[in-house]
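> call design_seq(struct)
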């Protein structure tokens, strides 16, 4: 387990008892940060690697609980960067919180391992450049911008509230969507933009900042 100067490293079971001393997020600060040991990791293979750096992301898409005015932040060790080649995705689990760590052409990103449509694990989908495809409903999401590239086949509302009808992939029968409560639920389901967790690379390991309560 990696230990950085000034960090207290606790297992996830003890995370809730950690002091809340950190009132402002600063990637260069160690105050009040808890380094979580014992996270379980599932990794998928990839064909090639590039020089690994944390990818930039739109600041307005920073996940709640890890911003400048957040309480104590837990730093999760997400494994060796050398084992996450470009095009690879890795699931890191702490308690009941699953995080997707992906190596894109723009660098390494960390988001919740949940499709923003119906919460399917994106880590078992397909990654093509920056775009990850959900394994359930054909939704496609840009890990570099946070935007929805392709709405799911079930349609629904995009992040701006615009309605998109159901659709079917090429070569398949048109999707039938009879009126009723289920159709209404699909129509009102909003597909949000992705939310990001800050990533750092320290001594060859990927560190992800999560809210302490995660």
């Amino acid at each position: 387990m990696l230990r950085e100067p000034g960090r207290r490293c606790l297992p996830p079971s003890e995370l809730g008892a950690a002091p809340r001393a950190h009132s402002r997020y600063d990637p260069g600060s160690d105050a009040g940060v808890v380094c979580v040991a014992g996270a379980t990791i599932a990794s998928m293979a990839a064909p090639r690697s590039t020089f690994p750096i944390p990818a930039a992301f739109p600041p307005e898409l920073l996940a709640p609980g890890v911003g400048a005015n957040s309480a104590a932040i837990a730093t999760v060790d997400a494994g060796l960067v050398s084992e996450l080649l470009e095009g690879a995705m890795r699931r890191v689990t702490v308690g009941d919180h699953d995080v997707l760590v992906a190596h894109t052409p723009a660098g390494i990103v960390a988001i919740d391992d949940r499709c923003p449509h119906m919460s399917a694990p994106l880590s078992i989908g397909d990654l093509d450049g920056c775009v990850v495809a959900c394994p359930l409903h054909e939704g496609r999401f840009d890990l570099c911008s946070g935007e929805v590239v392709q709405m799911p086949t079930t349609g629904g509302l995009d992040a701006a509230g615009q309605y998109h009808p159901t659709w079917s992939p090429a070569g398949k029968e048109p999707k039938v969507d009879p009126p009723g409560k289920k159709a209404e639920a699909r129509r009102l389901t909003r597909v949000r933009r992705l939310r990001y967790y800050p990533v750092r690379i320290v001594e060859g390991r990927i560190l992800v900042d999560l809210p302490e309560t995660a």
